[in-house]
Amino acid sequence: MILEGRVIKQGSVEGEALVSSEPIGFYGNVDPDTGVIIEKGHPLEGKSISGKILVFPTGKGSTVGSYTMYRLKKNGKAPIAMIVGESEPIIAVGAIISNIPMVDNIDISQIETGMKVRINGKFVEINK
Prior knowledge:
The chain has a single domain, classed as Phosphohistidine domain (Glucose Oxidase, domain 1). Strand 7 (116-120) and strand 8 (123-127) form a beta hairpin. The chain has two helices and eight strands; from the N terminus they run ββββαβαβββ. The chain is globular, with a radius of gyration of 13 Å. It starts with a strand and ends with a strand. Helix 1 (65-74) packs parallel to helix 2 (89-98). The protein has an eight-stranded mixed sheet, with helices on one face. The protein has helices spanning 65-74, 89-98; strands spanning 2-4, 6-9, 12-19, 53-56, 81-84, 102-104, 116-120, 123-127.
């Protein structure tokens, strides 16, 4: 299946999806040294986003989240790409300054954790 979205940060990457049904706030909710989601009660609490294609509905929280994403990238703990239902400025800026390929306006309900996903520009290919 191929979905078409909007490019936020251009890129081409393939990897395993890690899907959240809830928004993700990077500042204070993701450990920038480990890449593990530490937000209490979050569906991905305790999971590492490092090396995954992170799929989530939207971002939330402080503008410092963009810099947390940058720290994740510098520490080698960032996701290799992000697919977002609807981007907002914090996530978009974070992807751009961290050079993390990102596409939004995607129906994320079509993607499940563990699926092999390929992003090529505005296209997302899902292998079930």
